[in-house]
Amino acid sequence: xxxxxxxxxxxxxxxxxxxxxxxxxxxxxxxxxxxxxxxxxxxxxxxxxxxxxxxxxxxxxxxxxxxxxxxxxxxxxxxxxxxxxxxxxxxxxxxxxxxxxxxxxxxxxxxxxxxxxxxxxxxxxxxxxxxxxxxxxxxxxxxxxxxxxxxxxxxxxxxxxxxxxxxxxxxxxxxxxxxxxxxxxxxxxxxxxxxxxxxxxxxxxxxxxxxxxxxxxxxxxxxxxxxxxxxxxxxxxxxxxxxxxxxxxxxxxxxxxxxxxxxxxxxxxxxxxxxxxxxxxxxxx
Length: 285
Hints:
There is one protein chain. The chain is mostly beta strands. Helices cover 9% and strands 39% of the residues. Residues 1-55 have low confidence and may be disordered. Residues 1-30 form the signal peptide. Residues 29-54 are annotated as: Disordered.
């Protein structure tokens, strides 16, 4: 594929990459792990946090840090993309969760594979990452009971974990992304989930707009599509599993979150900054 072909595809890739931002961008944290192993190590965990007035840890927002996570070496990629969620709202049944600025980043390449008389567009994450996803933890408002309590005894941290590689369609700006949502506090333990690798929360995301691009600047090649809006109202959320000893608190999580929650009762809206570059511009010479 020629350099001119790569460049001509930047705009549609920008629209596709915008949809990547939704892949759980809001309710959580996905630590970097080996692809296919969402229970792996914590290489993507935050390096620093501060504490707000409530005593809850406040993570520093994720930022654009170049093209180091686009696996261009030895690959015939069309573009590299990085998507950073800048805020929004997620609703699961009766649970509303604000999406913080810089809560999720998706980085990787877009590979074009010949498929008969057409091209199949495939998102390819860098090796050693959790399907190209890095995100920061957030606290569910109201915790376990829907109200804040002294000393944050009922505080719940939510984490999104990708359980598969996204399926993307660049020209239609669509993405299908399987995830599971991990909920943690001292009572729930370390194995409390909404969704699983075999029964995931499947986000089917589409960009609702593609704003004008502008140069990234600062000596970095590529363009950014700022404040790109997205939405998804089609995903369903399964009932809780593994919450508390032997799953004894599954009922409490289901009561609090309104799960299982079928399609039509859940929504995700966000805006993101979408960074794009033709892969040949950042590939090793």
